[in-house]
Amino acid sequence: MRDQQPGQAPPPGNLPVEPDAFVGRSAELASLAEALRTARLVTVTGPGGVGKSRLAGRAAGGAGARDGAWRVELAPLRDPEVLDHAVVEALGLTDQRPRGPRETLLAHLRGREVLLLLDGVEHLAEACAELVAELLARLPSLRVLAVGRRPLRLAGERLFPLEPLPQADAVRLFADRAAAQGVPVDGETDVVRELCRRLDGIPLAVELAAGRLRALSPRQLLERFDDRFRLLAGGARDALPRHRALRTAIGWSHELCTPEERLLWARLSVFAGRFDLEAAEYVCGGHGLPSDEVLEVLTELIAQSVVTREETAAGARYRMLDTLRAYGAEWLRATGDEPRLRRRHRDWYVGLATWCELEWFSPRQAEVAARAEVELPNLRCALEHCLTEPGEAHLGQYLAGSLWFLWVGCGRLPEGRHWLERSVELDADRPAHARTRLKALWVLGYVAILQGDSVPALAALEECREGAERTADATALAYAEHRTGCLALVSDDAVRAERLLRSALERYREVGELNSNVLMSQVELAMTRAFLGDRADAVRISEDVRRICDDHGERWARAYALYVLGYAAWAEGDLPGARTLLSACLSDAHGFHDLLGSVLALELLALVTASEGDAAEAAVLQGAASRIWPSVGLPLFGSAHYNAPHELCAAAARERLGEERYERCLARGRLLDREAAVARALRRTGPRPAPAG
After folding, report:
1. How far, in Å, CA of 96 to CA of 448, rounded?
2. What stretch of H or E contains 260?
3. Which among 64, 144, 397, 573 is most buried, taking Cβ atoms within 10 Å?
4. Distance, CA of 8 to CA of 79 (rounded, Å)
5. Starting from the edge strand earliest in sequence, which strands make up the sheet with 143-148, in order?
């Protein structure tokens, strides 16, 4: 692994920090590094628990890819159609356009020297093979390191079968994990060596055994393992010895668990990826395991290395290795309790989405955003369950619609559209469920508008309006009218936009609706008034929105109100006030990964900067914005109203700099990624003179 020099920026990528010491594997690491230097596709294969992921992660970190090593965890995925979205997510990309995530990947990776680590390809092998084949064919600078129990079977694939640890390394691993628990085994080297030999040097098996040292000595572990192995060796004689050794180690560890621990192990297998304590208590509690005992049992599974604890942006989370989860899933199916647990899982995440949607309009908005991001694998699992189980289409529509804040506010428009379109293809099961479909329709229309896809947007909103009128659903009618007004606004039909938005606001008042969407309708009305020339009314409406947002701790809609106020302040000649307002707008929008709000703020900050006299910096910011717009959609919606400030800024900068220098500054700005562009715009706290030369 390359050493990072003091003061040197960390390499790009998202490889996780290793939770404990990496033991042994020096020869394999060197061989894998050499394979990555000479082949564009390397697949590490081997049985579960042999350490494929750990070795691949260590090799990827030292591969020296100029633009970073990026790991995509595939184990939590169930739907092959979400594979591309998961890769986009892992790369930290935000692309709001209606184009598919595959096009986003190709556009982003073109010309970049990236190592893509796909971890856990076996259960999505066909989809992974198709994705990797296209990426490698079209991106000559890309390398792929795949990890799985079977190869992808692609031309040019170099296989790297991983064997168990040599005995000396297995003994070192056992001793290291024992020491971490405060149980030294220095005086029992012979017993530990024999135990590791019986475990066939499989790292997971060794760690499971070491996890039992609080209760059993190494000699007792060896005796129990011998009994278990002899019992199982009579069956599955066609399996490789190391497969039998791993299943023996897992089964033996499973048998050493108490009945409550075995029950929780099985039930936790319904989670996709990470989960928190409250989810475990709700989903897994009851029917032989009281909810108030889940924490105690979970703590024991952590001590035995069955479950690991991790810190995330949303707090502590737990997870099982995929091999152990699969073992628990087999046991759960054997009990016949899997359907009930799947329903419990679905209910928890439908409830979580409901809570998140309500709390989005509150001081906990940032917490909601962080939690929804962390819980996305389980939300996907719940969506897939609802949209494939008979009789649950309405729940899928409800869930996809309730997550509007995640799709819209947190920059996940393409994935949101995927789930929304799937959900509205299904009919609500009963007339009583029609409301959930109407909600999914207006959210779909909203997503399509923000992607610049007006025809599907209008179709969804018209269907929503007709359904709302037919069922006398006043709330859905208000949302359909609101979003149709929004579509008119970005289409430069300001007169129609004002009429629809005012009507929608009156409908919201009649039904008592007040949330971030309602406030956004006021912001959009304020923009309409500004475009029609009444800045004073635009300011009045936006100040009212800001006051309500401050009262409720809302920051997402508030950012858009600050955008309108910043524009008005610039128009009045208050450049310091405009910069302060727009900087706050940019900071909040960027914090929510809201690409549209971020790039709109950048455009106006460029205009303010030009007005302050720094035409070169204004052009750099315009260049940075021009790099972001292709990920949003049609620049400035193709709207003459939204484009006017951009044209004013460009004209002023060209006049001061001249065409040639203006273009050079634009080009400098286009070199900035989104993080760098936002940081540059926010660093400026006031005007500065134009640079000389």
Report:
1. 9
2. helix 259-268
3. 397
4. 40
5. 69-73, 115-119, 143-148, 41-45, 157-161
Q: Is the torsion defined by CA of 478, 481, 484, 489 positive or negative?
A: negative
Q: Return the closest-CA partner of residue 410 out of 487, 313, 505, 486.
A: 313
Q: Is the separation of the CB atoms in 586 and 605 below 8 Å?
A: yes
Location of structure tokens 């497969």: 243
The residues facing 315 across adjacent strands are 312
Per residue in 116-155, pLDDT (tens digit) is 999 988 888 899 999 999 999 999 999 999 998 888 999 9
Contact by Cβ (8 Å): 479, 467? no
Q: What is the pTM of this model?
A: 0.80
309 has pLDDT over 80: yes
- Tokens 């600078």 sit on residue: 141
Do β-strands 143-148 and 115-119 pair in parallel, antiparallel, or remain unpaired?
parallel
Q: Which residue has the tokens 């300001």?
A: 494
Burial 597-625 (b: 16+ CB within 10 A, else e): bbbbbbbbbbbbbbbbebbbbbbbbbbbb
Please determine, for residue 89, whether its predicted confidence score (pLDDT) is greater than 60. Answer: yes
**Cβ neighbours, 10 Å, residue 135:** 20
The Cα–Cα gap between 618 and 604 comes to 10
**E-state strands within 226-379:** 308-312, 315-319
pLDDT value at residue 245:
58
Q: What is the DSSP letter of 275?
A: B
Q: What contacts 274, CB < 8 A, 6 or more positions away?
A: 310, 312, 317, 318, 319, 374, 375, 377, 378
Mean pLDDT of 630-639: 74
- The answer to whether 640 touches 594, Cβ cutoff 8 Å, is no
Alpha helix positions (H), 407-534 = 413-424, 434-450, 454-471, 474-490, 494-511, 516-531
CA distances to 100, 157, 621, 660 from 40, in Å: 25, 8, 37, 41
What does the block give as tokens for 64? 């020296």
Q: What is the DSSP letter of 679?
A: H
Find the radius of gyration of the CA atoms of the chain: 28
The bridge status of strand 308-312 relative to strand 315-319 is antiparallel
